[in-house]
Amino acid sequence: MDGMAAQEAGGASSLLLGEELAETLARGGAGLRLDLQPICAASNLLIVGYEALLRWDHPERGPIGAAEVLAAAAAAGREVALEAWVLVSAFRLRAGWRPGAPYLAVNVSAPGILAGHAAPMIRAALETTGIDPRALSIELPEVALIQDIGAARDLAAALRGCGIAVALDDFGGALGPARVLRDIPFSTVKLDRQLTGAVDPPGPGTDRARAAVGAVVEMVHALGATAVAEAVETAEQLRILRESGCDALQGWLLGRPGQGPM
Question: Please, are residues 166 and 159 in contact by the beta-carbon 8 Å criterion?
Fold first, then answer.
């Protein structure tokens, strides 16, 4: 299959999946679920938070990950409906946890930020679920900030006004400028796997990769934010990232997505 044919086939597949997703959302999201991946304090590896990760248990294809679900939603023009489902479901889930439970981090999509949908949907989800906003962290993807830093700044300000912590997700993955950190006072910055994954194993460039992580963490701390390393998968990565000063760690070494606390 040539490149054009493959692209057309992929588009048709996303459109078909999108039609099924639209029906799923019309039925209240049956089959959609949120897996929770723990975020652990670097100092003692105790769980301080969870990140909600979207999954779709398709009746024929089995589990489908977030990227493919989002592509299907875009193909069907159902991005807003899907994001609303995620926000309400995540907030309701966290509202049911015991007092003092870890915070819950929820991602918002780049289209939602750029189109201005995110802020009103988050406010509506807060009203619907009655959750304490201090139990939440909303993660903004770096790629959206690079496309329109003004829209991201406005959303971050609105979230802080509601009492919600704001995190920058995947920092370093899109080679974003330091202006992102300068202009928006994030409470948390999550280091992308392209930064954290390069610190291990030892080899050419590893020393520079470790120095780069240390420099980023130092900058994050200087701006008053906490640094969370994503995609921690080996004991050596854990050791290096701890030594680099990361405040918290997230990855398969520490816990795969699951149900979280009850």
Answer: yes
